[in-house]
Design a protein that fits this description.
By secondary structure, this protein is α+β, with helices and mostly antiparallel strands. It is 40% helix and 20% strand. The chain has an 8-stranded mixed sheet. A 3-stranded antiparallel sheet has the order 3-5-4. The radius of gyration is 27 Å and the shape is elongated. It starts with a helix and ends with a strand. The mean pLDDT is 94.
Length: 423
């Protein structure tokens, strides 16, 4: 969340940020609520001071053997007033905290201004393969090879779920192990196996709640949420912690299944693996010093790109415009890979710098030895990468005319030396 003091002192900056995001949040109403809350708080403090003064006067009257009853009555009235005003303050303060959580992060000045049509391609890599035949899409390929069963997945769980089997299941496992090995052995991340069900505080700290609650799976009895991404448990490892200055940056990676209801996906392409409710992902999370966070974002992006490059898939990197970045992000790059069967670019990773937005919500700090006081860390995260659409691109880029699939060379040792998926 943003610093309330910053909002109070810089309302025009926040108002301009909301405009860049095309977010219609009523900042004027929030500022009025904040002012009213602070006036009530001042009244509470004033009554507390008056009570302390009256208590001292009562003690003085008793010592001098004078009648303290008028002052006692005055104190009782103040106490009644304090109970009433404290109740009013508690109500306003709770409303204030709820509203503060609804204000999005401020977009970084380097972002293009506008909606998704203003996203800017900042990097491209790889070469699109030239086929001597009309490339098939992943659905046709997977069903012919009997490695993905969409119909039985729907029988088990409903639409937009997936059942991998045989070499399809082996490919999923190979990709997970391959990516975790690269990120731990070459990029220096510590591997974590976190819970995939978290509490409301965890979801709030990373910014999924209250904004995106309708997209989440939640257990009614316990109020626990199935994670939409490992970013949630990884970031919350250090919720309410004070980190050591010398241990920053901290880097975590984790494989988890991820769960999203995709409540707003009506009308979007939901065929095959394009938009599923449960998918596998390897996630990267960093806790860094504020003055290094944008350099660390570029490193994070490079780590995710390395996976795509090793797999030999054409890709491009988009710098997202101010109206297309997530609620909590200050700056975000999307990595898209090319799927020739669909003839489309598919997003497989978003690499974001949240600055101190998540750290404030989660109270994640470090002690700055130069300043001699506590500071909020900056948090970053990125997919390193998401599997569903990555599998789309592998099947479609590595297909042969006979419908078989060449296995990318880096994955073969994870596939027991197999070089091709055949019927």
């Amino acid at each position: 969340m943003l610093d309330a003091k910053f909002i109070r002192q810089n309302p025009d900056v926040v108002r301009e940020a909301l405009k860049k995001r095309n977010d219609r949040y009523d900042l004027d109403a929030f500022c009025e609520l904040d002012e009213k809350r602070r006036l009530i708080l001042a009244k509470v403090e004033e009554i507390n001071a008056a009570q302390n003064r009256i208590d001292q006067e009562i003690q003085s009257l008793i010592k001098t053997k004078k009648d303290p009853k008028p002052k006692i009555e005055e104190g009782k009235k103040l106490k009644t007033d304090l109970v009433r005003i404290n109740g009013e303050y508690a109500r306003l303060n709770e409303q204030f905290k709820t509203e503060l959580l609804k204000i999005p992060n401020i977009p970084h000045e380097s972002l293009p201004v506008g909606d998704a049509s203003h996203n800017k391609v900042v990097r491209e890599g790889g070469t699109k393969k030239e086929f001597k035949f009309a490339p098939r899409d992943h659905i046709e390929l997977a069903e012919a090879l009997d490695i993905i069963d969409f119909k039985r997945a729907a029988k088990l769980s409903g639409s937009n779920f997936v059942l991998f089997k045989g070499d399809g299941a082996r490919l999923v496992r190979a990709l997970i192990n391959f990516m975790l090995d690269i990120h731990t052995d070459e990029h220096g991340y510590k591997e974590i196996v976190p819970p995939v069900i978290v509490n409301r505080d965890s979801m709030t700290a990373t910014g999924q709640l209250p904004k995106l609650e309708e997209d989440m799976y939640v257990t009614k009895e316990d109020g626990l949420f199935l994670i939409p991404t490992a970013e949630v448990p990884l970031t919350n490892i250090h919720r309410n912690d004070v980190l050591e200055y010398d241990e920053l940056p901290i880097q975590y990676t984790a494989y988890t299944p991820c769960f999203r209801r995709e409540a707003g996906s009506y009308g979007k392409d939901t065929r095959g693996l394009m938009r599923v409710h449960q998918f596998d992902k390897v996630e990267l999370v960093k806790f860094v010093k504020p003055d290094t966070s944008y350099d660390e974002l570029e490193k994070l992006l490079a780590h995710a790109i390395k996976i795509i490059e090793l797999l030999g898939i054409p890709y491009r990197v988009l710098l997202l415009a101010s109206g297309d970045i997530s609620f909590a992000a200050a700056k975000c790059y999307d990595i898209e890979i090319y799927a020739p069967g669909l003839d489309r670019w598919l997003e497989v990773s978003s690499c974001s710098n949240f600055e101190d937005f998540q750290a404030r919500r989660g109270n994640i700090r470090y002690k700055d030895p130069d300043m001699g006081k506590m500071q909020f860390v900056h948090t970053l995260n990125g997919s390193g990468v998401a599997l569903a659409r990555l599998i789309v691109a592998i099947l479609e880029n590595y297909q042969n005319e006979d419908g078989s699939i060449e296995i990318p060379e880096p994955l073969r040792r994870y596939m027991n030396g197999k070089v091709r998926i055949e019927k």
